[in-house]
Amino acid sequence: AAGAWSEAAVDHFLRWQRIGARDGAAVRWFHAANSKARAREAARSDVHMIEADVLLRGGNGDPVMAHPPETDSDNTLEEWLKEIVSTNKGIKLDFKRYLETR
């Protein structure tokens, strides 16, 4: 159903008493947690949801945490997930397709 993922996230945070009412506006976000430093900052923060971007290194390599026009990062997807998995925070990953223009 449309919006089901967001309702499930709100219900999760309500059930764990991380928000006081069933209100999506109460959910706090940390955006662009791509680098190791930003991922660490997000993991230690009091936000509910962490958003980051995934693309293939150099356009065809390993998945890394970066937002175009960047094509590389100090953080792979695997490293990022290991950092975030134990935080009890929700995640939103934006998978980017790097297109080279000439």
TrEMBL record:
It comes from the Eukaryota. GO terms for cellular component: extracellular space. Signal peptide: none annotated. Residues 23-97 form the Menorin-like domain. Pfam families: Menorin_N. Belongs to the menorin family. This is F151B protein. It comes from Corythaixoides concolor. The gene is Fam151b.
